[in-house]
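Q: Give me the 3D complex with 1,6-di-O-phosphono-alpha-D-glucopyranose.
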Amino acid sequence: MGIITITTTAFNDQKPGTSGLRKKVTVFQQPHYLENFVQSTFDSLNDIQGKTLVVGGDGRFYNEQAIQIILKMAAANGFKRAIVGQNGLLSTPAASCIIRKYKAFGGIILSASHNPAGPNGDFGIKYNVSNGGPAPENITDAIFANTQNITEYQTIDASDVNLNEIGSQFLADMTIDIIDPVEDYALLMADLFDFDAIRGLLSNKNFNMRFDAMHAITGPYAKDILEKCLGAVEGTVINGIPLTDFGGGHPDPNLTYAEELVTEMFSDNAPTLGAASDGDGDRNMILGANFFVTPSDSLAVMAANADCIPAYKNGLSGIARSMPTSQAPDRVAEKLGIECHETPTGWKFFGNLLDADRATLCGEESFGTGSNHIREKDGLWAVLYWLNILAVRKQSVAEIVGQHWQEYGRNYYTRHDYEAIPSDIAKQLMADVELKLPNLVGQTLAGRKVTYADNFSYTDPVDNSVSSNQGLRIGFDDGARIVLRLSGTGTEGATLRVYIESYENKPDKLQQDTQSALKELIVLAEALAEITTRTGRTQPTVIT
Ligand code: G16
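A: Here is the predicted complex, encoded as structure tokens.
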């Protein structure tokens, strides 16, 4: 089994986005396309000789073929050991957990997250570093630079690895350990939460829950942990068998795409708790009976109730949220007297804060929450966190959030997405809004005074690295905000995201409908960006 060097030419579209490289499957299937990106990744890392690499993915179409290619290239490039999830499966949080637990050098995670899968769907690849988190920008920049100059890659001439059988095999000089994808992750969860209290809750006949795995990776994790270990009745987990095309669905846990769950949770006999996760298991949506918890509120409530959870009851070192996430968590941080960080969109920006113990809980409006237990956001962890809170507080989800608003006030929050806009139109729209920003400061718009308007730039407080152009912000004197950004995860044209928030603390105004409460700001954002005129869209594709 000799190492072979293959001559290749560069592709010019391999710039990693918010979370790795995401493209259509058909793009990844082009000869040398995946190989170029993998070699460019290996070449951006120092000293991989003799090291351990974790490899796994969300099980979508092309997952196993990609893993075979990656393993052969890892062996040819000098890795000594690869740890691979059985059948090539690892949820993103489980991959992060395994990188940390086995002190691997890094990991390759194959996923396009919530994007649809199948032969005509999306595929993705990203590299995670030894802390278990997504590679920081200096590495993703180096990967991109390498992809532009690549002329050859190394692989070995060998037959495919058997991904089905747990145990060890060899590929040239590299050991391959096929492991149970769930076991290490489940053990970690049992360490963090009060499983006995959750078992008690789940055995209470007045409590019932539904978890929608959306035909994606969390099915086996949720079945093992919720049903087998914690005693939730069989059938609690729906759509629990991972399919390579996710059943033709769009496994994005939000009010639009998790339709089956949402319909049940807003019906007359709704379960007490509803939850869903996404393609690769790092996102979560939390619902009570007839009640939706925004991801921003979810982070705030989790932080305010950290004393319910064994792993966090001794206090949080800080909270971090992405810039477009609502400011609800900031109010909790202020009350707790802990640091609160505002980072650009992308979980990679939380890594330094978590490593330096400047944040314990992190969250994003894009249905991501997580903690210092790993270095990725974690869907099932968030569900267990809520179960643990419910077990201790013995109230409904709506009661807990309602009391939170009474205490801290409510940050009304919505995100309007306009998907698949032609890229040139979207870029021009953003450029033109940016030009307007300096003149907005001091003006009164939608009955509020603009106090700042800028393009968000972040200086990491740990390593002082600067990330600019992270979204346009318009802030008002009453705490309201309008934020505009282009998504870094789509694969078709551009997705314009408009984030809108306002703050309310009058006790009798805390239960309004979100879209009505934000109406003036929504109209203002549309007018400022001239969305309909420029895109022809009269309404968003998705509202969350
Ligand atoms: C990824 C990132 C998140 C980010 C989200 C949306 O999540 O890991 O940090 O918030 O994309 O990013 P954008 O607004 O640029 O599309 P995932 O779950 O897709 O890996």
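A quick observation: DSSP finds 18 helices and 27 strands in the chain.
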